[in-house]
Fold this sequence. Notes:
Number of helices: 4
Oligomer: single chain
Helix content: 40-55%
Largest sheet: 2 strands, antiparallel
Number of domains: 1
Shape: elongated
Amino acid sequence: MPPPDLVLSPAPLGGWPPDPLIQAQAYRDITLLRMLAYAVDVLIIATIGGGVTLTLWLLTLATLGLLWPLHFLLAPFLVALPLLYHGLQIGSPAAATIGMRVFGLVQTAGFYATLAFFGGLLLLVALFNPQRRALHDLLAGTIILRKIGG
């Protein structure tokens, strides 16, 4: 089911997602916009991760090594950070990460499982199908569309 703020006519025979031939504006430049949105998200995640890492190192130096045991928590935090970043935002009512919102994209069909281990390689599949669906979209049965109107 589409989010309520999408102004799209349904696919032929009332199906979802919209047909790319009939609703081409929903798919226009979607691959480029997704890659740019992904770059924004990576930058945000790297900034958060780098900030936490730098802060931990500075605090460890300031305490003359007293906080050294906390460094064992750093790796699990850095692994969990992108999963939490994507999962909590895609699962929110906005149905989009910050990068997706910047470029006017929205995730339909609800929550999807983030496959962070493959990174941007998942987007390559989008170059070869008419609805510009990435590999994780195909696996989860979701689709990314441009917000139209509102």
